[in-house]
C-alpha cells in the first residue's frame, strides 16, 4: 500500500529541552545504535523547537503514548516512546534509540512519514493518535 499523503520530511516539532537531551543521548550511543542515532540526530536538526508549554497539541514527545500504523501492520501499534533504560517492547515501551522510535518523535496526529525499515526497505508510518502522560 502506498500512502500518497506520506512525506519523507514532514514538518516536525520538539520540546527544546528534550531535543537537547536526545541529541546528547544519540551522540553518546552512536557506536551501539549507529542507524537509529543518525536518524534521530537528523530529525532533531530539522525540528521546530518549542518551550514545553508551547508545543502544539497532538505531537509525539518523549513518554507519549502513540497509536500508529505502518505498511506492514495496517491494524496498527500502540507504544509509549521512552528512553532506552525504560524500553520493554513486551510492555509496549519503545526506545527512542530504535529506527521506529526516531521516526515517531515530533510527528503530529494525522501525519505520515516515509521511513527506513530494518531490512533497508522503506515503510510509511502514520500517526493515528497521541496521548500525553498525566
Key terms:
134 residues, alpha/beta, five-stranded mixed beta sheet, two-stranded parallel ribbon, 3 helices, 7 strands, globular
Overall description:
There is one protein chain. The strands form 2 sheets. Strands 5-4-3-7-6 form a 5-stranded mixed sheet. A two-stranded parallel sheet has the order 1-2. The chain has helices at 16-28, 34-46, 99-104, and strands at residues 13-15, 48-50, 65-70, 73-82, 93-95, 112-116, 122-131. The model has no long low-confidence stretch (mean pLDDT 91). The N and C termini lie far apart (35 Å). Helices cover 24% and strands 30% of the residues.
Q: What percentage of the residues does DSSP assign to strands (E)?
A: 25-35%
The percent of residues in helical segments reads: 10-25%
Tell me how many strands there are: 7
Question: How do the strands line up in the largest sheet?
Answer: 5-4-3-7-6
Please mark out the parts with pLDDT under 50 across 5 or more consecutive residues, or reply none.
Answer: none
Task: Quote the average pLDDT.
Answer: 91
Quote the distance from N terminus to C terminus: 35 Å
Radius of gyration: 14 Å
Largest sheet: 5 strands, mixed
Class per helix and strand makeup: alpha/beta
Q: Helical element count?
A: 3
Order of helices and strands: EHHEEEEHEE
Globular, elongated, flat, extended or rod-shaped: what is the shape?
globular
Helix-strand blueprint:
Blueprint: E1 13-15, H1 16-28, H2 34-46, E2 48-50, E3 65-70, E4 73-82, E5 93-95, H3 99-104, E6 112-116, E7 122-131
Parallel strand pairs: 1-2, 4-5
Antiparallel strand pairs: 3-4, 3-7, 6-7
